[in-house]
Amino acid sequence: MTETEPPEFPDDDTSVPVVDIEMVPEVVAELASTSEQHEGLLRELGGAVAELGGQAATQSEELTALHAGFHKLEKTLVDQANVAQPSRWAWEFLNQDAAVQLWKETRWFVDYLTRRYPLGSEVSIPPCWYRHTIAVDELSDLYAAWREAYCAGDQPSSAMTAWRDRWLWPCLSRLAAHASWRECKESRRHVQPIARQDPTDSGFEDFIAAEAGSRPRLSEQPLPWPTSG
Which long-range contacts (CB under 8 A, 24 or more apart) does 196-205 make? Predict the structure, then answer.
């Protein structure tokens, strides 16, 4: 067995720190104070990080709301740009597919309406309603108003009551007065209305040419009252 070598000690006594035993409490107190300072700094840093996180979340919500606002504004601008385009409710301008779709939807609505609201004979809707163009326009528009009131979300809305007060009952009264289907109801079959209006006569072009020709060419016309400036 080899003999264990004794530990080596440094030759220079200054390489080993020597602490006076009387100074140990002071050193410990200083170390404790430094540790408390570090803990305080860590708490401050933690609070700053949490605050930054909250600010980031708030900014994210604000950006989301701003993004939604931009989309809404974009849609509004597009709708305004397309204001001259006929909508899917304008019967005169529908192609075949769009007309068939609107006919189906309007029939569903009329059948729902007559089933849901058993109407008196004076305002009832006869089965031949689709042969009366006045009724077609009134009922498809009434359906559009119903869609707006009942298909715009799950939140309760006064629009549902307004649909009956402002649109349903007035619409039925107009139909009773103007749809020309009294004989249809009485005979229980469709009777083509006798009264028919002729289209605009051939004198229209000459009339508007003379009327427009009597107007001044300049767009600005003097007003009969004083104006500022």
Answer: none
The number of angstroms, rounded, from the C-alpha of 130 to the middle of its chain's C-alpha atoms is: 32
Break the chain into its structural domains and give their ranges: 25-78, 91-191
- For the full predicted model, state whether its pTM sits above 0.85: no
DSSP string of 48-66?
A: HHHHHHHHHHHHHHHHHHH
DSSP 18-36: ---GGGHHHHHHHHHHHHH
d(CA 177, CA 181): 9
Cβ atoms within 10 Å of 135's Cβ, excluding its own: 23
Q: Is residue 219 within 8 Å of residue 161, measured between CB atoms?
A: no
Token code pair at residue 196: 């028919």
**Which residue, 178, 186, 174, is CA-closest to 126?**
186
pLDDT digits (tens, 9 = 90+) for 32-82: 777 778 777 878 888 877 787 777 777 778 778 777 777 777 776 666 666
Tell me which residue has tokens 């909250």: 54
Q: 137 exposed, middle or buried (CB, 10 Å; 0-12, 13-18, 19+)?
A: middle
- pLDDT tens digits for 200-223? 889 999 999 999 888 877 766 677
